[in-house]
Write a structure and sequence with these properties.
The structure holds two protein chains of two kinds. Chain A contains 17 helices and one strand. In chain A, helix 6 packs across helix 14. Chain B is mainly alpha-helical. The radius of gyration of chain B is 19 Å and the shape is elongated. Classes of the chains: A mainly alpha, B mainly alpha.
């Protein structure tokens, strides 16, 4: 009888405790935004809020990049990729004309195509399929308690720092001039070209799929819309598009500085704009704030829906070593490629940069190889020897 | 096939990692000054973007 009474009291108390915990989480998020706005400035508080929004949408609506590409490669399921293209196109409709008419205040993710850029994107595609986490995906995975993402994250930051250090050497191997569609064809010509190319990719992906896989689920429509709105907000508030990799490299640069490293030997880190970033607080750095927000937002959603109750699977030692190496490669290669799936693919294409399209092609080719490697490295059960993955 | 029964310790470790990054940063960075902050919205501010982005070149 006593036991039953205790059980029933416990059952009644559990939802109440859950509700209090959820309210506390939301209040903590709001408090963090207000604190950053008060101590660093309103723009930085708003950017943290945008980052939290990204994290909540990415984790809450399961919108990603590596997973949908894997689904397309393995099962010809195009819904996730088409949702990405819809989000990119929606941002482009606003971003390309806005950047052309406000070029003094807003910049696009415009970068040159080059040998190292293409190679970097290819390697990034391999690495993101090995750990099944891209730039934003690694942040979301780490925030939601995914052990592979958590292991990869600090090495991603170190790789990004090192890649930026060597960037001038790699770009010296051969780099074409920057081509931005808005500059080359005018705001609306550049936008039209971008939308036509996005539509062509979507049509090819949908035509290659079985009829039952051609429908885009409602959650992906919603996610694409929210991600697009947040990306536009990022551009309008920060003056630059959504990015991930720069912030992670900056975290490692801060750590190196704290350990007494001299960054003056690097053309990248000794450039005035980057030296200023290293000397100023991370709470005034655009990509650091959105990165912190993405991790915290994913954490909030995982806690809200009791995602932390999931077990951490046992993986072979080879898989953990692969996660470390892949983390380093994700960071290093994305610096050579002038961005990851966010900075180059999403923001590059949505602001009319040719390098975004070249990144997409090279990273997708790398992903085809990465999907095969993931199975061989023990992430999907026992590593296969000799057989086809 | 399970190494930990819950993801909670991993999430706590990630949270600590973030706190350590922010703590190290506060030790090596200039103090925050909200009075020197840029206007809340870049669009319409007349101020140029900082350009600390993934697409930034090696040397400007």
């Amino acid at each position: 009888m006593t036991s039953l009474a205790v059980d029933s009291a416990g059952q009644a108390g559990a939802p109440r405790a859950g509700l209090f915990w959820r309210i506390a989480l939301v209040l903590a998020g709001l408090a963090a935004v207000i604190a950053v706005a008060a101590f660093a400035g309103a723009r930085y508080g708003l950017l943290l809020a945008v980052g939290l929004g990204f994290g909540i949408v990415l984790e809450g609506l399961r919108f990603g990049f590596a997973g949908p590409w894997r689904a397309l490669i393995l099962r010809r399921e195009p819904a996730g990729l088409v949702a990405q293209l819809i989000a990119i196109g929606t941002v482009a409709i606003v971003a390309i004309p806005l950047i052309e008419t406000h070029s003094g205040e807003l910049i696009g993710a415009h970068a040159p195509v080059g040998f190292a850029m293409i190679g970097g994107a290819f390697v990034f595609g391999i690495a993101m399929q090995i750990v099944l986490g891209c730039g934003s995906g690694t942040l979301v995975n780490a925030g939601s308690g995914n052990a592979v993402g958590a292991v990869a994250l600090p090495f991603f930051a170190i790789g990004s720092f090192a890649g930026a250090w060597h960037l001038d050497w790699w770009t010296g191997l051969g780099t074409a001039p920057v081509i931005a569609f808005g500059d080359a064809f005018g705001a609306y010509g550049g936008l039209a070209l971008t939308l036509v190319m996005l539509a062509l990719v979507a049509i090819i992906a949908l035509r290659g799929a079985a009829p039952e896989h051609r429908r885009i689920p409602r959650r992906l429509w919603l996610a694409a819309g929210f991600i697009a709105l947040l990306a536009i907000a990022n551009l309008v508030i920060a003056g630059q598009p959504w990015g991930v990799v720069y912030g992670l490299g900056l975290w490692a640069a801060k750590g190196a500085t704290a350990l007494g490293a001299d960054l003056s030997g690097s053309a990248f880190w000794s450039a005035p704009a980057n030296m200023e970033r290293v000397s100023q607080s991370l709470l005034t750095d655009v990509t650091s704030l959105t990165n912190i927000g993405i991790i915290a937002g994913a954490m909030l959603v995982a806690s809200w829906r009791r995602g932390f109750d999931q077990p951490v699977p046992r993986l072979p030692a080879m898989a953990w070593v692969a996660a470390i190496v892949a983390g380093l490669l994700l960071g290093y290669s994305s610096r050579l490629a002038f961005g990851c799936n966010v900075g180059a693919f999403f923001s590059g294409i949505s602001t009319g940069s040719l390098h975004g399209w070249v990144w997409f092609a090279a990273a997708f080719a790398g992903s085809i190889l990465g999907v095969k490697l993931r199975a061989r490295l023990g992430f999907e059960g026992a590593p296969k020897r000799g057989g086809r993955p | 096939m399970k190494i930990l029964p819950s993801r909670r310790p991993v999430a706590i470790a990630v949270g600590l990692f973030l706190l350590i990054v922010i703590a190290i940063d506060s030790g090596v960075s200039a103090p925050l000054n909200p009075f020197a902050a840029p206007s809340p919205i870049a669009l319409g501010s007349g101020q140029a973007a900082g350009g600390a982005h993934c697409a930034a070149p090696a040397v400007r």
